Fold this protein.
Amino acid sequence: MNSRRMFLNGLAAGAAMALLPTAGHAAVGGTPDEAKAMLDRAVAVMKQKGKADAAKIFNDGTDGFKDRDLYVVMINDSGVFEAHGDIKAMVGRNMIDLRDPDGRPIVRAILSVKDSGMVEFKWKNPLTNAVEPKQMFCSRMGDVVLAVGAYK
């Protein structure tokens, strides 16, 4: 094997190892209380800046709206994500029929929130790679629902 290939293989292996959590230093996710606090801040930003500017802030994850596994989603009444602070590819997609592994209709449940509330479902935790119970704290703002979730 030539030295360039050995260097690149070593670099790739080192990068992969750096991404793995080490024993005793596993990543810690956000708590339900932190999710509620982020949602409260998101509601305040939307009231102050309006839906379009708030969506940009949430999508960018700026102003503290992306913290570990905590982020804001904004879903309109049709089930289209107007903001997704973690997966940008979700923005503009209609996910009205999205279900958890047990068949629970996640987006429909979130959209059923009249004022504020909490929706529970199961989802793959990116920090553990296991399907775990998640609580999504929701607040209706006109024709959209803002939500922030935390694993239990």
